[in-house]
Design a protein that fits this description.
49% of the residues are buried. The protein is built from eleven helices and 18 strands. Strands 1, 2, 8, 9, 10, 11, 17 and 18 form an eight-stranded mixed sheet that branches. Strands 5-6-4-13-14-15-12-16 form an eight-stranded mixed sheet. The chain is of the alpha/beta class.
Length: 416
Amino acid sequence: MRTRYSAWNLLAAAARRGNWAPAWRDAEPKRRYDVVIIGGGGHGLSTAYYLARNHGVRNVAIVEAGWIGGGNTGRNTTIIRSNYLYPESARLYEHSMRLYEGLSRELNFNIMFSQRGIVTIAHTRHDLDAQSRWANAMRCNGIDADLLDVDQLRELVPRLNFGGDARFPIHGGFIQRRAGPARHDAVAWGYARGASALGVDIIQSCPVTGFIMDAGRVTGVKTPRGDIRAEKVAMAVSGHSTVLARMAGFRLPITSYALQAMVSEPVKPVLDTVVLSPAVGAYWSQSDKGEVVIGGALDLFPSYAQRGSYGVTQQVLAATLEMFPSFSRLRMLRQWAGIVDVVQDSSPIIGPAPVPGLYINCGWGTGGFKAIPVGGWTLAHLLATGRNHELAEPFQLERFKTGRLIDEAAAAGIAH
């Protein structure tokens, strides 16, 4: 019988022989750094990478309570897009998109970014009018967008329910063709490898239990592996931002919710673009492994349970059967949830905290994965220069006092 080989079992064989080099150094904490970053997800890793690469700040530590990429970075649907309405958001997410487009080359690590497009479906005349305004705003902001009629949609996504008796009739839609999914763990591993190669210490299994304060200023973090002091401390911990903020003595306007997703068994290619229906509150894509990836709306009660509720699962699957009747024969493989940090205007917070010496990257809600490069780029700029990056200037915490909110709930496609 012939032995069959794949890239995965060749790598596994190399690991068993002991000649599979780790992608990054698993460091022991030093007692002092220039910058300590709390959180070893995508945003923390990209911040460390751009600190070292763009600004030459290399005496940096990432402290992660679990393992690299084990939080929200590995618990999402990996869609990258910049189809936002307001200029402030458009500039931010488009910069992230452009960084993603060159990231495999930048990191010399294939993140498997597949720019197959994202289609947003219109079910009413009102939807068509709103999407025309949305697409025109994108074009004014220099972002690609094309309106689609029913015939174009039928050709692009033939498995959609175009029946005359459909509960949600399809009237058209629009597409951002540069959007698409990437491989979540490849993004985390690529940034980790790049940061480690530039001298950043990556410290796993090291939860932060408190902050070191001197004269009202944050000067380090407390961990089970000893105190770690730093000139500046940054936190990029997504849904746990409020927990760490309370440790530092301030409140954030954030509520943490579970955002769940699920995948089917692998099947042959049936869906070669991402499809979003705001009316039914769900979206669909197909992974490179053949799984149909299904996402939906928030579980609208505060929670840290990484599984989501049965009610939302049922709602999302009902929407799936309405939009794609042929998917009724698919068997579901697994389901999960990430803990997202939602603020009132569905826009992030990137800037200094109310406590001197502490800096925050949070409030991305359901859009954290697509913003990993720009979140790290802008926070690194602030940590290195002491000044907000121009892209981050509209997204300061003080906007909740001044009222200059950037309400992207509608422009995000699903109102969360």
